[in-house]
Amino acid sequence: MNKLSVKTARDETSIGQTASVNGWVRTRRDSKAGFSFIEINDGSSQGNIQIVAPGELANYESEIKKLSAGCSITVEGQIKESGGRGQATEIAATKVHVWGWADPEEYPLQKKRHSFEKLRQWAHLRPRTNTFGAVARVRNCICNSIHQFYQEQGFLYVNTPVITASDCEGAGEMFQVTTMNLEQIAKQELEKLNYRFDFFDRPSFLTVSGQLEAETYACALGKVYTFGPTFRAENSNTSRHLAEFWMVEPEVAFAELSDNMDLAEAFLKRIFADALQKCPDDMAFFNERIDESHTLLENMTNIVDSDFVRLPYIEAVEILESCGQKFEYPVSWGTDLQSEHERFLTEEHFKKPVILFDYPRSIKPFYMYCNDDEKTVRAMDVLVPGVGEIIGGSQREHRLDVLTGRMAEQELDIDHYWWYTDLRKYGTVPHAGFGLGLERAVQFVTGMGNIRDVIPFPRTPGNVDF
Ligand code: 4AD
Ligand code: MG
Fold first, then answer.
1. Hey, how many other C-beta atoms are within 10 angstroms of the C-beta on 145?
2. What is the DSSP secondary-structure string of 216-235?
3. Ligand nearest to the CA of 238
4. Protein residues with CB under 6 Å of any ligand 1 atom
5. Starting from the edge strand earliest in sequence, which strands make up the sheet with 354-360, in order?
6. 2-100 and 127-173+208-453: same fold?
């Protein structure tokens, strides 16, 4: 028998076919006329398909009338035009096979709506809800667009290591990786802790970024991107930080900051446009049910169709200083911008995405290209309404003497980065790249308020269940 997904079975073109459809029951209601309506969903689309199960079915009394939310079934029958509202088709069932029951006294996802906080405790079941199904589909669409965008432009996908001895961002927020027995060491004296006995002979960590390794491949292959999990042990319990998140990092040789901005803008527009075009039902759902002002679709469409603002950091500081707004953290030249400042610029002042560039060198990592003013580096952050910083990147310092000077300034062990400095010794070339936080991109596209709700199993301080 023809197997159809709920999505395909919902399509008018399936009318008349005899088919089987699998899914999990959302609701069942019995008609006085002796038959039942069952709504099932299999994750293929936002909408359910309605099953009409006649009383004549052999298991009607024994099973069908006991179906409740969460039960898994396979239905065989004919796809028909539906008389009901909101759906083109329904299935007139000739057979309903029950695979698994879900005790209605225990199954957490009953009809009642649960808060997102509550649903986080059931991260294994929440993908069965409308919201988390939609998030999973849109996240998938974005991942697909990421690969398509770079592949179409001739970038090579490279896999950079998850375990590393380097701290790319220099913020020291790293998770250590060791095979040493910590319990045993804790019982011994500290002097006995010797990394010579550890797996990698030296302190090693989960990577905060694939950038440094991506640079080596860009300086051989021209245009590359890495896309994988990254880890930061920052103890910030905010709605925009995870301890484990996914980052896309393109890196381009023979390129400078303006090329980097052009790439970032085209890239973001592409993934936004694809979400609008390829996930219309899910995007309509987010617009109606998640975005309180119901302007998500309109805003996204405007962003795709208009230019981002490009603004030097110094001008941003001037705007913030003279805007008359009271901020929790004061701003002046040389301070790092806080989320409240970034959001003011992109949400209140410009009301569109803003690319800030040329930041003070004292607040940025060692690898960024130093401008001639000796005060700023060619860094850029892309800020978007509702989320704030979504991309961070820069032109890289390709001059050996300036780079080693910066490393000394930041007290990095230059020997340790010998392979990174080698790139500047042999055929050095201006190059640039950036990192997009995948979850922040998904937050922006879906309007979901908390980053914990756009990744299947969020890792935050204290949370490592599932
Ligand atoms: O600005 P960041 O720290 O830049 C880098 O890591 C560079 N090495 C990237 C590069 O140039 N190749 O991080 C890049 C992006 C941020 O803009 C943000 O979207 C995201 O990664 N990000 C996080 N997302 C979730 N949770 C966290 N803790 C994040 N930290 C950064
Ligand atoms: Mg950043």
1. 20
2. HHHHHHSEEEEEEEEE----
3. 1
4. 168-169, 209, 211, 232, 234, 241-242, 245, 247, 249, 389-394, 433-435, 437, 439-440
5. 156-157, 223-231, 244-253, 431-437, 388-395, 376-384, 354-360, 309-312
6. no
Ligand 1 nearest-atom number relative to CA 211: 12
**Residue 245 Cα, ligand 1 centroid: separation in angstroms?**
9
Ligand lying nearest the CA atom of residue 444: 1
Residue nearest to atom 31 of ligand 1 (CA): 437
Q: pLDDT category, 86, cuts 50, 70, 90?
A: confident
**For ligand 1, mutation pick of 212, 247, 389 (most atoms within 8 Å of CB):** 247
Å from CA of 391 to ligand 2 middle = 7
Ligand 1, residue 171: give the atom nearest the CA.
3
The CA radius of gyration of the chain, in Å to the nearest whole number, is 27
Q: 127-173+208-453: CATH homologous superfamily?
A: Bira Bifunctional Protein; Domain 2 (3.30.930.10)
Which pLDDT belongs to residue 190?
67
Strand partners, 205: 164, 176
Query: Residue 143 — left, alpha, or beta (φ > 0 → left; ψ -120 to 50 → alpha)?
Result: alpha
Give me 377's structure tokens. Answer: 């580096």
Angle (CA) 200-202-204 rounded to 5° is: 75
- Per DSSP bridges, beta strands 89-100 and 156-157 are unpaired
DSSP H/E element including 319 = helix 313-322
Q: Does domain 2-100 have CATH number 2.40.50.140?
A: yes
Q: Is 117 helix (H, G, I), strand (E, B) or coil?
A: helix
Which phi and psi angles does 357 have, rounded to 5°?
A: -145, 170
Residue 71 CA to ligand 2 centre (angstroms): 45
C-alpha to C-alpha distance for 324 and 337, rounded to whole angstroms: 17
Tokens 């010797």 correspond to 194
Cα–ligand 1 centroid distance for 162 (angstroms): 15
**Residue having the nearest C-alpha atom to atom 21 of ligand 1:** 437
The stretch 210-226 carries a mean pLDDT of 98
Domain locations along the chain? 2-100, 127-173+208-453
pLDDT of residue 386: 93
Bridge partners, 74 (sequence order): 22, 97
Residue length of the chain? 466
pLDDT per residue over 301-350, tens digit each?
A: 999 999 999 999 999 999 999 999 999 999 999 999 999 999 999 999 99
Q: How far apart are CA 284 and CA 297, in angstroms?
A: 7
Of the ligands numbered here, which is closest to the C-alpha atom of 359?
A: 2
Q: What are phi and psi of 350, to 5 degrees?
A: -95, -25
